[in-house]
């Protein structure tokens, strides 16, 4: 296992964020192999059918990046075409990154998945977290948070998407951060006994980000970069920003296929903004849904947690097995969204203006598809994407003898 610095170490050396990414050395022409051209036509049909402005696709086969191409437009208004190095919001695919960081900490003996989260003996035992409305929160473990079984039912009102509500409830003069989010949920009764039910929770993964900071002695994003991404040669994945003027130049423009609606900006400024540009607090979402990535770099991360031997995994075989153990309801998975129990795993992500799908197949093919558009039928977009992937897999008979990771 790799080692990394924790609080008290004096020799922390985190490489600069602007270190060149291998994705910048790849252009669309690199994936013009005759055997895979059918992918281009199938993806283009999908984009046209669903009115998607732009997309990025990356495919690995036996640990090698054999396909990486942008489609449509990163910026539709200015006719700037999508290229492999373009960054996209990956939404809840971020949970797989956070889960990997937790498993790495567990492997290195810095925490245990059965550790308690709250209470005097919990990881979050700061004075601001010791007041809670429901004593059952003391029973919540890290494992419960990882598997969405901590006791919250946020199907109707997910507090991560209501920072203005939190600010009002807590009489804050500034936007709610992670500490305030945690205080807010602790002020409410749990919806069920921890461990008893499964209920998808973004808040739970935001809390996991706070635990990572406590266990590592580093800011969440810095730890993930230092312990997980940079050892893999991944340098451009980062937590995204909410407003367009804050975004890196490689990031795509986001679109919603419906009549323009304006929402109160999350920062309390009183401005009214498009939902994808300040309606949600991407920084607060961070561990649950705030990462941005290019498809090739995300593909490299997935290759390091897929359990295949051709590309070295960053986690132990035991950790990967624990993350992907599947039962009929998929409610034991860690980080991943679903598994068929036969070696196919998937992770979905959706936010205003974006959608992402990661699929890992037992034939050692991994697929990444990132979109910069919320389609008309947003609820079925991941099913549409998976059908598109299966269609491509049926048509491609010959893969190129290349590895774009090595470009």
Account of the 3D structure:
The protein is of the alpha+beta class and about 400 residues long. Helices cover about 30% and strands about 15% of the residues. A seven-stranded antiparallel sheet has the order 3-2-1-13-12-11-10, sandwiched between helices. A three-stranded antiparallel sheet has the order 4-9-5. Strand 7 (about 260-265) and strand 8 form a beta hairpin. Helix 2 (about 95-105) packs across helix 9 and helix 5 packs across helix 6 (about 200-215). The longest helix has 15 residues, at about 200-215. The protein starts with about 35 loop residues before the first helix and ends in a 12-residue tail after the last helix.
Brief digest:
With 407 residues, this protein is an alpha+beta fold.
Write the topology of this structure.
Elements: H1 37-50, E1 54-61, E2 64-75, E3 80-81, E4 88-89, H2 94-107, H3 142-146, H4 163-169, H5 178-186, H6 202-216, H7 220-229, E5 238-239, E6 255-256, E7 262-264, E8 272-274, H8 275-279, H9 282-289, E9 291-293, H10 295-303, H11 317-324, E10 338-339, E11 345-351, E12 354-360, E13 365-371, E14 373-374, H12 381-395
Parallel strand pairs: 6-14
Antiparallel strand pairs: 1-2, 1-13, 2-3, 4-9, 5-9, 7-8, 10-11, 11-12, 12-13
Helix pairs in contact: 1-12, 2-6, 2-7, 2-9, 5-6, 6-9
């Amino acid at each position: 296992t790799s080692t990394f610095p924790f609080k008290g170490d004096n020799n922390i050396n985190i490489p600069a964020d602007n270190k060149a990414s291998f994705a910048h050395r790849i252009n669309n022409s690199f994936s013009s192999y005759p055997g895979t051209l059918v992918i281009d036509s199938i993806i283009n049909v999908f984009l046209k059918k669903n009115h998607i402005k732009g997309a990025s696709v990356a495919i690995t086969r036996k640990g090698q990046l054999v396909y990486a191409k942008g489609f449509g437009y990163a910026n539709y208004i200015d006719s700037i075409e999508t290229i492999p190095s373009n960054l996209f919001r990956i939404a809840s695919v971020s949970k797989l990154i956070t889960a990997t960081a937790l498993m790495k900490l567990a492997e290195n003996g810095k925490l245990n998945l059965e550790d308690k989260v709250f209470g005097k003996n919990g990881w979050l035992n700061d004075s601001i977290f010791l007041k809670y409305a429901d004593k059952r929160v003391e029973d919540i473990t890290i494992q419960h948070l990882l598997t969405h079984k901590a006791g919250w039912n946020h199907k109707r009102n997910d507090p991560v998407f209501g920072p203005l509500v939190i600010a009002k409830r807590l009489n804050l003069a500034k936007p709610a951060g992670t500490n305030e989010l945690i205080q807010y949920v602790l002020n409410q009764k749990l919806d069920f006994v921890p461990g008893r039910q499964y209920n998808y929770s973004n808040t739970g993964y935001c809390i996991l980000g706070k635990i990572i900071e406590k266990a590592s002695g580093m800011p969440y994003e810095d730890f993930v970069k230092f312990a997980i991404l940079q050892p893999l040669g991944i340098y451009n994945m980062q937590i995204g920003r909410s407003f367009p003027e804050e975004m890196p130049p490689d990031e795509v423009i986001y679109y919603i296929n419906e009549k323009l609606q304006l929402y109160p900006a999350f920062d309390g400024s009183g401005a009214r903004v498009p939902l994808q540009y300040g309606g949600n607090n991407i920084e607060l979402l961070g561990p649950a849904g705030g990462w941005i990535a290019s498809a090739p770099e995300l593909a490299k991360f997935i290759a390091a947690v897929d359990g295949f031997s051709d590309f070295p995994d960053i986690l132990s075989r035991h950790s990967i097995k624990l993350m992907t153990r599947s039962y009929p309801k998929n409610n034991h998975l860690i980080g991943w969204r679903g598994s068929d129990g036969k070696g196919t795993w998937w992770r979905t992500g959706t936010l205003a203006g974006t959608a992402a799908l990661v699929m890992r197949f037992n034939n050692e093919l991994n697929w990444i598809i990132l979109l910069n558009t919320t389609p008309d039928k947003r609820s079925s977009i991941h099913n549409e994407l998976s059908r598109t992937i299966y269609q491509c897999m049926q048509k491609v008979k010959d893969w190129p003898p290349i590895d774009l990771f090595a470009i």
